Amino acid sequence: MDGKKKTSVLGILLMLICAVCLSLGQFLWKSFEGPLYIAIGFGIYGLGAISMLCAYRFGSLSVLQPINSVSYVIAAILGRVFLNEAITVDKVIGIAMIMAGVFFLARGEVME
Fold first, then answer.
1. Among 37, 64, 97, 106, which residue's beta carbon has the most beta carbons within 10 A?
2. Which pTM does this prediction carry?
3. Is 14 in contact with 55 (CB distance < 8 Å)?
4. Are residues 48 and 19 in contact, defined by beta-carbon separation less than 8 angstroms?
């Protein structure tokens, strides 16, 4: 064995779940007022943190941590759909670059 830890599909899926939970939890904090929404947001955010910790058991940090940047893409979509925030050409280019980077990182080290 060459010492490199391969990343499993499960690790990638757990990190994607983490990205969704982190974005959704933060969205709830921003969009709604009151202790109930804050508690729900913290709960969802906490599930994301647990998902992240579990993901690290199934792959290398250098592949899994950058996948968490998908949360920026999710945040842009949530902002557009629910808050009418603009998605400019610059944002589209940034989203495309993030997704390309995640694709190449995940593809390069996934365990068959």
1. 64
2. 0.85
3. yes
4. yes
